[in-house]
Design brief:
This protein is α+β, with helices and mostly antiparallel strands. The protein contains six helices and eleven strands. Strands 1, 2, 3, 4, 5, 6, 7, 8, 9, 10 and 11 form an eleven-stranded mixed sheet that branches. Helix 1 packs across helix 6 and helix 2 runs antiparallel to helix 5. The relative contact order is 0.20. The site of one zinc ion (ZN) has 4 residues, from strand 11.
């Protein structure tokens, strides 16, 4: 058997498809002063996804189920310019990744056009009400392929569509445009769709997505938005 055909068979066996998968969410509207914020979070707790502040940015350790939660959250965040997508990860039962030493964090994904003052998050989080569940279904090709030329544009001086980040109230905020989320989306998709096959073949493989945050390789370092990385790592112990 040729290498190519065995690779295809192996691919077929381990492959996970995101298209058609469903995710149940809770959607809350929180009023604060004269403003109202729409918060989307998963209806079921994410059992193994622990996010820690790390030396090079942030470290997120995920099991197989959590890679799907992250893919849904990413896809929704890209398409929901008026919502905050909230993954309450501090309550995850997992302590994997704590060797990175930093504090444990929640994750919030949002659009910069929302101009959400992160100093308000603690109060918004405290006022999340019980709400009805909504079902989200991933369409085919939910994560579009980003070409080389598009990636190259990230290095232009005037490029604005990078993911910004900040930490407040024990939460890592990723803030960007739809384009910014799409530029990093394939790494998130691959964790959920491709890594199960890699790990079925060799369970000790290091499978990860390196999500770039901040301004990457700009001619002048941007002190307010330094380059950093969200390292999302498949947990070999609990996969
Ligand atoms: Zn890695
Ligand atoms: Zn683990």
């Amino acid at each position: 058997m040729s290498t190519v055909s065995s690779a295809i068979e192996y691919w077929g066996r381990g492959r996970v498809r995101l298209a058609g998968r469903e995710w149940r969410t809770l959607v809350s509207a929180v009023r604060l002063g004269g403003d109202s914020y729409r918060v989307i979070r998963p209806a079921r707790p994410i059992t193994h996804a622990s996010l820690h502040e790390g030396r090079l940015g942030a470290q997120l350790s995920v099991d197989k189920a959590a890679t799907v939660d992250l893919a849904f959250a990413w896809w929704l965040a890209a398409r929901s310019p008026r919502s905050l997508v909230y993954l309450p990860l501090r309550s995850s039962g997992s302590s994997c990744g704590e060797e990175y030493g930093g504090r444990k964090l929640d994750l919030v994904l949002l659009h910069h056009s929302l101009r959400f003052p992160v100093s308000r998050w603690k109060r918004v989080r405290a006022h999340l009400s019980p709400s009805a569940t909504h079902k989200v279904t991933l369409p085919p090709r939910a994560f579009r392929t980003v070409g080389r030329e598009e990636h190259r544009r990230c290095f232009h001086r005037g490029f604005q569509d990078h993911l910004r980040w900040t930490i407040a109230a024990d939460t890592l905020f990723l803030v960007g445009s739809r384009h910014a989320y799409e530029l990093q989306g394939d790494g998130v998709r691959a964790l959920a769709e491709d890594c199960p096959a890699h790990l079925a073949e060799s369970p000790d493989t290091h499978c990860c997505a390196e999500i770039e945050m901040g301004r990457c390789k700009a001619p002048f370092p941007d002190a307010r938005d330094p380059y950093s990385q969200l390292h999302v790592e498949c947990c070999n112990l609990h996969w």
